Amino acid sequence: MLHFPCQNLLRIAALLCGLICPAAVTSCATTSSIKSISDLPLKDTRLPGMDWQLSSMRSNAQYVLYGANSNKERTARLGDYYYVLWHDAQPATPARVEMLYTQASTASKILSRSIVLSEPRSFSGMRKTVFSFNGPQRAKNGDVLSWRINLYSNGKLVDSRRSYLWQDP
User: Fold this and answer.
1) Strand partners of residue 45
2) How far apart (Å, rounded) are the C-alpha atoms in residues 130 and 138?
3) Are 118 and 94 in contact (CB under 8 A)?
4) Distance of alpha carbon 103 from alpha carbon 109, whole angstroms
5) Contact, 155 vs 32, CB < 8 A?
6) Nearest CA to 112 among 90, 96, 127, 125?
7) pLDDT tens-digit series, residues 53-64
8) Which residues contact residue 128 at a Cβ distance below 8 angstroms, ignoring those fewer than 6 apart?
9) Residue 39 contacts by C-beta under 8 Å, 6 or more apart in sequence?
10) Which residue, among 137, 29, 27, has the nearest Cα to 80 in the 3D structure?
11) Structure pTM?
12) Which domains, and CATH codes, for the chain?
């Protein structure tokens, strides 16, 4: 007799989970969206310390500086690196990740860079796009002050994120 109510509760819980979980999974998988944006600046050719608080900065510096043998090569890689993690729900359609930004010497002039994926991709899922600002162009124009990142799927804007300093024109 004691097991009868528990078995009913288990059946009800299994039924609810069977109804709710697939709906949650398919709702996430049907639209492309930006999941996260990480700005990891590289301001010095020396690696950050071994503290756990600096571990992401240290690993990014090691990744960016890998293979740079001379001080000139390492200095050319100094700059800002923006890592955009996004979900590609429709790999058969063209996608574009666009970054609108302002830099220190360009004042309020909005510049843009785009990465276009015109060929069909083999699978849907998470993708990483990197925007790097380094070398002589960065030395001339300075740091990135504000930015907005737009994700387009099949020519339509599906998601957008911006920095807190970004002002729409």
Assistant:
1) none
2) 16
3) yes
4) 8
5) no
6) 96
7) 666 777 777 778
8) 83, 84, 85, 86
9) 80, 81, 82
10) 137
11) 0.73
12) 31-162 (2.60.40)
